[in-house]
Amino acid sequence: MASSNSLMDNLFQRSLEDLIKGLRLQLLGESFFISKSLEEIRREIKSTDLSTKSIALQKLSYLAALHGVDMSWAAFHAVEVVSSSRFSDKRIGYHAITQSFNDQTPVLLLITNQLRKDLNSSNEYEVSLALECLSRIGTDDLARDLTSEVFTLLGSSKVLVRKKAIGVVLRVFDKYPDAVKVCFKRLVENLESSDPQILSAVVGVFCELTTKDPRSYLPLAPEFYKILVDSRNNWDLIKVLKIFAKLALVEPRLAKKVADPICELMRRTVGKSLLFECIRTVVSSLSDQETALKLAVAKIREFLVDDDRNLKYLGLHALSIVAPKHLWAVLENKEAVVKALSDEDPNVKLEALHLLMSMVNEDNVSEISRILMNYALKSDPFFCNEIIASILLACSRNSYEIIVDFDWYLSLLGEMARIPHCQRGQEIGHQLIDIGTRVKDARLELVRVSRALLIDPALLGNQFLHPILSAAAWASGEYVEFSKTPYEIAEALLQPRTSLLAPSVRAIYIHSTFKVLVFSLAVYFSAQEPTSSPLVEESTSSGSSPVNGITYKSISSLVNMIELGLCSLSGTLDVEVQERAKNVLGFIGMIKHKIAEKVTTQESETEASRAVAFMEDVFSEELGPVTSTAQEKVPLPDGLELKESLEDLQEICGEFLKPVVDSNSNSNSFSSSENISFSVAKLRISDQKEASSSSSHPPESASLLAEHRKRHGLYYLSSQKNDDHNDNNGDNNNTLNEYPPANEISVDSFNTKKKMNQSKQRPVVVQLDEGDGLKTKPDASNNDEPLSRAIQTALMGKGKEKEREKDNPERDLDSRIKGRSSGREKKTKKKNGEKSSKHRSRRRSDKEASAAEPVEIPDFLL
C-alpha cells in the first residue's frame, strides 16, 4: 500500500517548474497559492521515496529564498535527502542545508558522518558539495571533527577539490584555531603551485587572513613578493597588493622593497582595476616613498579627467585616502575636484564634497564655504543638506578651531537657514547656542542674526527650521542687553504666525519675551544710564519725560503688547505654554500699575522696582557649555558603592522591609495581600528620630540611611510638615557634604586656546577640560588572538622542517628566513640540568617576548 502511494505521488507530483508557472499565473491571491503549495509540500516531504522528498524540498527551498517561507521545520528531511546515493538528490539536500541551517539547528550534528563520508568520496563533485556546505555552516564541532579530511584534500590531485578545500580553510581556522597546526604547512606549500586556479584560491585565503592580523604573516613576505613579480594574473596581483598594503603598515622596511615592482605595474598595466589597486596601495601604505607617490598622483589625475564616472569616483576616493598626509596632492587637482561637484552622479558629487572639506583650514574656510553655498542653492535637496552638514562639521571641529571671524560664521549660519531645501535645523540651532555660550565676543552678532531670523515670517512655516528659531529666540532673550531694538524682538516673539510653531518652541518664545520684559523694566527703573542701547521709542513728540533713556509711553506700549499677545495663550491646551504665559501675565499684573510711579514719585526704590530687580537677579546668572562627560565628573560620596550587589540590603534595612501583618490574622500566615506593604512610614519616623538624637550612637546602617536622606532629601516624600524645616537645619550644619550643582561650571574648568600670528585676533572660545571631543572607547580585545598565536607558532616551526631544501635556489630567500626562525627556536630549548619550573617560567617569558617583538625578515629586506 505504501509503495502504491509513493508511485501515485511520483506520477502526480508537481515539479519546481510547475510551481513557478503557477506563481506567475497568480495575479491576485499569491499568498493563498503559497499556503496551498506549502500544504502540498508538507504532505510530499513525508514520503518514504527519496525522489519525491527531494522535489518537495527543492520547492520549499525556492519558496524560502524568494518569499521568505520558514523551512526550519524541514531540517531533518534535508539530512535524509543528503544521504541519498543519487547526486541530484544530494545536491538538493546540501543546498537546503546551507540555506536553512545555523548554529542552533538541533539536527546539525547528524550530518557530521555524512560530510566525512562525502569528503572521502571518489566523486569530486560530491566532495565539492560537502566542502561548500562545510564552508557555509561549519561550527566549532564540525571544524574540529573534519580537520583531518580537509588536510587530506589540501593535497588532492584534482584541481576542483583542492581549490575548494583551500577556501574551506578560512572557516575551519576561524572556528577551530588548532587546525592551523595540521593544515597551515600544506596551505603555505600551495603558494608555490603552478596551477593558476589553486594559486588564486590560496592567495585569496591569505588576503583574508592578513586583514585580521597582518603581523603574523610577515615571514611569508618572500613568497608574496615572488608572486608579485612573476604573476601575470591581474586578480592574483590585486590580492597580493592588498596583502602588502597590510604588511607594510606593520613592517615599514617592506615599503622600499615592494615600491619598485608596484611602480612597474602602474607603468605597464592596462587593467584599470589593477591600476587602482596599485594606487591605493601606494597612497595608503607606501606614502613615504616619494617616487611611487608622485607616480600614483599622476595616475589619479588621469582618472579624474576621464569621462567614465566610475574612474572619476575612484580617483576622488584615492585622493581622499592620500589627503590626510599629503594635502599637496589634493591641491594640485583642486580644479578637477571643484568641477566634480557639478557631476550628475551623486556618488561623485559626495566624494568631491568630502575631499573638498579635507582642504579646509582657517585661511580658506571662507572661500570654500562661499563656493559650497552657491552649489547648495542650485542642488537637489539631498546634496544640498549634505553640503550644509559638511560645512557645519568642518567648522565646528575641535571647538571651532578654524574659525577666526565668528561674526562671519554666524552670518553664514543665518544664510543656511534661508536655503530653500535646508533640513539641518537641529545642527544649526545647536551651534547658535553653543557659540553664544562659548564666545562672548560673538554675542552681539548672534543677537543681530537671531533678530533677523525671528522677524522673518517665512521661516515659521518650515518645521525643519523650528530648532533654529528656538535657538534664535533663546539667544535673543538670554543676551537681550546686546540688542539695539528690544521692542522689535518682543514684537517678533509674539507675532500671530508663531501659532505655527510646536508647543515646546512657543514655550521658549514666551520665556524669552519674559527676559526682554525684565531687562526693559530694569533699565526703566534703574537710577543710572543703561549700559546698552535703549528701547526704540514709539514717539518722541509726546512730551513725556524720559526716565533712564526710556519714556513712560514706550515701556507702557511694550507691557501692553506683551499682555495682549499672551492673553490668548493663557487658555491653551499645552500646559507648558499655559504656565509660562500665566507667569508673565501675573508678573505684569503685579507691576503694571506701579510703572507710572517712577515718573511721579521721588522715591529711589519702590515695590515694583524691587520685584524687577529680583527677577533681573534670577536671569543674571550666565550659562556656560556643559560637557557630555559632566555627570562622570561629579564626585561620589564616601561609602556609596554603585557597582556592588544589593544582597546586603536585607541586612541594612531588614526592620523596614518587613511586611505589615494584620493583628487579627494568625501569627503563621498573612490575612491577605492587601496587608503586605513596605513600611515607609516606619522608615521615615525612624530616620527623624535618628537624625534628632545626638546623645545616643545609632547603628551604622541607620546612620547611613539618615545621611542619605540629608543629602538627597529632595527625592524623599515628606511625612510631616516640619520635614523641610529639619532638613534645612541639617543642611546648614553639613554644607561641606553638599554636592555641587550639576550645571554649574567653575572658571577653572575652562581652558582658553589662542592662536598667534593671525591677521585678525581670534576671540576667546571656551573649551571644556577633555569634554569637547568624542569619548573614545578602549580598544576591544582581539577576537583572533588564538588564531594569530597558532599561525605564529606554525611559521616559527616551519624553518626547521624545511632546512633540507636550502640548496634549492628557488627557495633561497625563504630558507634564510626560516633558518633565522629556527635559530631563534633553538635558543629557547631547555638546557641540561635546568629545573622544570625554571624552564617553564623562562619559556613563558620567551613566548611573551616573541609576541611583543616584531617578526624579523632581514635577509629579504636587504
TrEMBL record:
InterPro entries associated with the record: AP3_complex_dsu, Clathrin/coatomer_adapt-like_N
Biased composition (Basic and acidic residues): 798-836
Highest taxon, organism lineage: Eukaryota
Domain Clathrin/coatomer adaptor adaptin-like N-terminal: 33-588
Localization terms from the record: Golgi apparatus
Keywords of this entry: Golgi apparatus, Protein transport, Transport
GO cellular component: AP-3 adaptor complex; endosome membrane
Similarity comment: family membership: Belongs to the adaptor complexes large subunit family.
Record's subunit section: Adaptor protein complex 3 (AP-3) is a heterotetramer.
Role, per record: Part of the AP-3 complex, an adaptor-related complex which seems to be clathrin-associated. The complex is associated with the Golgi region as well as more peripheral structures. It facilitates the budding of vesicles from the Golgi membrane and may be directly involved in trafficking to the vacuole. It also function in maintaining the identity of lytic vacuoles and in regulating the transition between storage and lytic vacuoles.
Protein name stated in the entry: AP-3 complex subunit delta
